[in-house]
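I am going through a labmate's work and have reached the protein record below. What it holds is a sequence and that sequence's fold in token form. Please read both lines and tell me whether the tokens look consistent with the sequence. Do not assume that whoever made the record got everything right. Thanks in advance; the entry in question is below.
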Amino acid sequence: MAADLGELLVPYMPTIRVPRTGDRVFKSECAFSFDSPESEGGLYVCMNTFLGFGREHVERHYRKTGQSVYMHLKRHVKERNTGAAGGAIPRRKNGKVFLDLELNRDFNGEDFEYEDEAKLVIFPDHFEIPLPNIEELPALVTIACDAVLNAPSAYKKQEPESWDEEIQVSRHARSLRQLDNGVRIPPSGWKCQKCEMRENLWLNLTDGTVLCGKWFFDGSGGNGHALEHYKETKYPLAVKMDTITPDGADVYSFEEEEAVLDPHISDHLSHFGIDMLQMQTKTENGHHTENNSRPRVSEWEVIQESGMKLKAVFGSGYTGIKNLGNSCYVGTVIQVLFSIPDFQRMYVGNLQRIFDYSPLDPSQDFATQMAKLGHGLLSGLYSKPPMKSELIEQVMKEEYKHQQKGVSPRMMKSLISRGHPEFSSTRQQDAQEFLLHVINMVERNSAGSENPSDAFRFLVEERIQCCQSRRVRYNQRVDYCIQLPAPFEAATNREELLAYGAKRREAEENMRAPPEPVRARIPFTACLQAFTEPDNVPDFWSSALQAKSAGVKTSRFDTFPEYLILQIKKFTFGVDWVPKKIDVAIDVPDFLDLSRMRATGLQAGEQELPDLLPPIVLAEDTRDNSMGSADSPEIDEAAAMQLAEMGFPVEACRKAVYYTGNMGPEMAFNWIIAHMEEPDFAEPLTLPSMIELGPSSSDSPLDAPPAGKSPPEESIAILTSMGFPRTHSIQALKATNNNLERALDWIFIHPEEEESDVLSDMADTEPNGFSNANSHSNSTVSPDREAAGPRVKDGPGRYELFAFISHMGASTMSGHYVCHIKKEGRWVIYNDHKVCLSERPPKDLGYIYFYHRLSSS
């Protein structure tokens, strides 16, 4: 028999592999479905790729790859047979077979026992070889089978990237000297202290200077001021500003000329007021604790509808999503997306086509995993009510505890969060940020096919006005979500809030327990009004004055989306960088009419700002070029002194007079009021060398990449995939310092005039706005939009609420999310794997609201 088995396996030996270090063995879940070894058909693990497949999908993999040998895993689950003395001790047979196996069922060891079975199956004849079978199988096969059976979960520990393995601890980390200069880094608004660049910024860990990096640090460009600062000071370590998370940050050593580890990064950042790494939070489903924070018991109870006898619902569209540990933000977003017909049609309607054309590794294919998850939620296969016999038996035992299983988003989360420092962690995250991340992934993976995110896309008209000249400029941009402020001053219970604040301060002074919190109640109309109010434009350069000036911006809807996303801005950053939640209740309406917020364009009597570029800063000339140079600017010293007599710093007054074009103390005073909060407000005026440019129709940045540097090929590919010519894309990236969003804006403001007649015919009108993703789609688009612009589904601005996501807790870095979705005329609450009819949906406590457009009839 041994010889027979050996001869049988000889043709397949080249295809059988032993898992190596770094290989992930998917033995707990199918790549196309949520079948597992516990399912009726078990799970088939390919002995070459180590991917898992359910009974319905293993044949597809065999036909596509020709791989014939699979390991079939089956777990038989039995309820424990209790006896008079309480029954036997729960046991597990063949305990070593499925080591570290993670399944969908949450076993209670006191109620169940299970037996594991494994065998090799050879396709297409389904010849079976029971395991273990050490004596009869070739040595290589035995070793491979043993390695697969004992491999850890594919998700327990991801393989570290090779770059992470090479990073060493810096020799400067332990003895780093930090200057006690009082520098505190704010949580936002950073810019290079030499060239005002706002990207690729590095914080020097010795003196707290924020400067731009070199061009090659991350491909986004820079003028190298951080390196220049090191050469002048020899301060060795710097941290990249946008990489700081509770898990750590990216640190670079100029002296060692490589990325390094800093074991004391928490203390080093804390020196400059960045304390988020020291924040300790613990989050569980339904419970949380935070430093110096009272549990918001009422909020948790109201949003989860605790204390009510909620009726569980089952079937298509009523499948829950398991919480993997702080992953409720994933579940709520996915539940809402797959309640929208566009996503159902794209991924579930095209299920077979997506599966048939999936790549050899479907676990790494976005469309496949979205289709898998959508089918799991909408098929009803994983949301079945208990059998009648089970109910009778459980009622007789007086222990009706039927649990909804739900599906696990583990494979999808692993894919969609790959490479993202926050979503790939096990910490709680902001659901709104994850929603936009998913939309971006949908955009990037929908080239040449239907794009369901078209339903969210809309154009915003931005009206920017120079406060001095009163001239205006109209821009358009693409957006997917409207962020509504929550103005506390509009609260209807202000007196109650003031009284609570006084009681809280008194309790703190007398070391007593704080009073019961009072929630601010804000009308929804006040939020809309605050959204339409003018905002100050930071670092506004007026082309009318040809100088920095005060500017204001207002926003309106240029188009209305088919599905409108509204986010209430409930979170803000404290000075310690920790996001904090504003406790508010807003009377969000079921029906919403935004027609009055439709954009109107340039009005009669308005004058447009001239189409002039601001001066370009040349990186090589920024040093040693100050007020003392030969070509010092003319400044009305009398006006500057007049302002200084009012108590303002002399240097600030000189800058105000210069940036307002010597137009008098009144204009300069307005500039001072608009810029007095800036960190370099009182520093001397330092002027870089400039190149005067001719007329242009761009709001060009103050920085430009070094001459001759080609933009990153990845950015060029993104723009060309949207249908823009390669030469135009390169020109846009060079003009905007390789900032993708600004490059898109530049393209739409600069319709191409030098291409061939064919291309000119395709873009004979000015495109509108910009988009962060591909805009290829077969969907119906607004008839007045050209193909070169972003695709939108414009229509009336009247909407009905159909879903909302709520957050419980004091910060986005802790707490719990649930969502409510209106289906078949009734509200349903989705709380992880539990899906029930809602008795009292807390619409006033939501965080993200979803509306669908009403028909015009």
Notes: The two ends are 76 Å apart (CA to CA). The chain has a mean pLDDT of 79.
